[in-house]
Amino acid sequence: MDGFVIVETRLIASLLHILQEVTMTTVRFAPSPTGYLHVGGARTALFNWLYARNTGGKFILRIEDTDVKRSTQAATQAILDGLMWLGIDWDEGPYFQSERLPIYQEYAQKLIDEDNAYYCTCSVDELDEQKKQAISIGRAAGYDRRCRDKGAKQGVLRLKAPIGNTVFHDLFRDRFEFDNSLIGDFVLVRSDGMPTYNFTCAVDDALMGMTHVIRGDDHIPNTPKQLLILAALVFNPPRFGHLPLILGTDKSPLSKRHGAVSVMAYQEQGFLPEAMVNYLALLGWSTTDSQQLFSKEEMIKKFSLKRITKNPAVFDMEKLQWMNGVYIKQANPEKLANLCREFTSQKGKIGDIQLEEIIKLYQGRIKVLPEIYQLGDFFFSPEIHIPEKICQEVLSMSGVEEVREILTETKKVLSALEIFNPDTIEQAIRTMAERLGIKAADIIHPLRAVLTGKKVSPGIFEVAALLGQEMVVQRIEGGLCMVR
RNA sequence: GUCCCCAUUGACUAGGGGUUAGGUCACCACCCUUUCAAGGUGGCGGCGGGGGUUCAAAUCCCCCUGGGGACGCCA
């Protein structure tokens, strides 16, 4: 009996395994290497990746480089870099379509053999003319199929679109129905033998076992075309889902004029990949409770296609910055210090003095990493400049003589300290204030001005301690000259 | 010109026949406080318009308006 149970359990397990194999989610990100990974592409990649990880499926990276003129290796690398920076890893690939040409040839031949495709010899000018005419008589602008029955043996290869409608159900919206006659007999293979996007995409999605194709809105018109190819080739179609676009603040599609669109530009500006991913995930996806901050694990666990919205989202820099600030605040200072050093080397600044300690002081105050070099510039150079404005507003605030006395006394008190840390400094200052019968703030403000050259800084006791006793004394002396 | 998509505060969104229309960013105020942040508390502000259906519409249907996309030997 026991043996039977074991056998039965094993049987169920292996059946489940097979079932899982058959139904395993397979998705992909299929960019064309014609530029950097942009925010919209990154969001598309992220959603596919999240879905794959959520379902325990497979995420494939495929480079669609059939446009030889525009594709570059640098762009491919930039896309890979962008994905890696965001922490989006792939299980297969990258596949390059340019290396799969024989496969597409094979299927093109199949379409020809089965009378589902034909050669067209129309020139570009002729096609233009056809388009103009179609529009002038109020028809859909498209190829008029004049070469369908010519029996040409060369030219571009076109699909023979059947009469009827092509229907599909979108993952995020309703039913789509397209009239095949409006789709037209589109090009599958160029006259130079290079296959086109719609053809390679359809073939690869089928061959690579894609269960879901999640891509941008702009591909909606391509979907019926690919469905037609799939049908002609007798492949099972994947499920399609079209993500709404990401817009700029003026509601037009996000582009360079809205600021940075390249994902790597955000790295250069001092954003953390975790924040970027978190923000991107919220552009079109949400949970019922409107949770905002997610760890990667949490995001994977909670991700669901059902909760993707169909309306386009405006990319909001302010919220991204807020989120980045939150991630910086929570990050490990050592990790941040390493990131900051990259910025210093880029900008030619020196930042070796206890960078980690400085970061701790600024973690809760900055939105992007490089801000630390503006707000905390007085930490990074021995000399500081006290702007005239600060001199007037702070150093002569309660009377020049009084400030002079306060600073002189402060210098004396602080240089007498044997242990120089935030606590001892604070104690010394407060004691001094009490002794002189003034407010601690009356000491703190001038002290801040002479130590930092600013009216705003982290807690002055921490700042002073980090600067070190010698530097503090030196800066008070320097500041004293400015009190006049 | 033809086809198609979208519509909740300034932004991201929840809600999908009966809710004081909820959360987050931003903004404002107050608290905390050595300044600035952070944090805490509170506040401002919204269902694009018009018709239906219904006892009841942000929610369902239609029209309009607005925004966007596609119509390549680009992807």
How would you describe the overall organization of this protein?
The chain contains 22 helices and twelve strands. The strands form five sheets. The protein has a three-stranded parallel sheet. Strands 4-5-8 form a three-stranded antiparallel sheet. The protein is mainly alpha-helical and 484 residues long. Helix 2 crosses helix 11, helix 18 packs antiparallel against helix 22 and helix 19 (422-436) packs across helix 21.
Q: What's the Cα radius of gyration?
A: 32 Å
What is the structural class? mainly alpha
- So what's the overall shape? elongated
| Biggest sheet features | 3 strands, parallel
Query: What is the helix content?
Result: 40-55%
Q: Are there runs of 5+ residues with pLDDT below 50, and where? A: none
Supply the number of helical segments: 22
Report the sheet-strand fraction.
5-15%
Q: What's the number of extended β-strand segments?
A: 12
Strand order of the largest sheet: 1-2-3
Euclidean distance between termini CA atoms: 100 Å
Average pLDDT for all residues: 89
Task: Give descriptors for this structure.
mainly alpha, 3-stranded parallel beta sheet, single chain, elongated, 484 residues, 3-stranded antiparallel beta sheet, RNA-binding
Question: Which secondary structure elements does this structure contain, and how are they paired or packed?
Answer:
Layout: H1 2-23, E1 26-29, H2 39-55, E2 58-63, H3 73-86, E3 92-96, H4 101-113, E4 117-120, H5 124-136, E5 156-159, E6 165-169, E7 175-179, H6 180-183, E8 187-189, H7 197-207, E9 212-216, H8 222-232, E10 239-243, E11 246-247, H9 263-268, H10 273-281, H11 296-302, E12 313-314, H12 317-330, H13 333-347, H14 355-362, H15 371-375, H16 377-380, H17 388-395, H18 400-415, H19 422-436, H20 440-452, H21 460-467, H22 469-480
Parallel strand pairs: 1-2, 2-3, 9-10, 11-12
Antiparallel strand pairs: 4-5, 5-8, 6-7
The protein binds one RNA strand of 75 nucleotides through helix 5, strand 7, helix 7, strand 12 and helix 12.
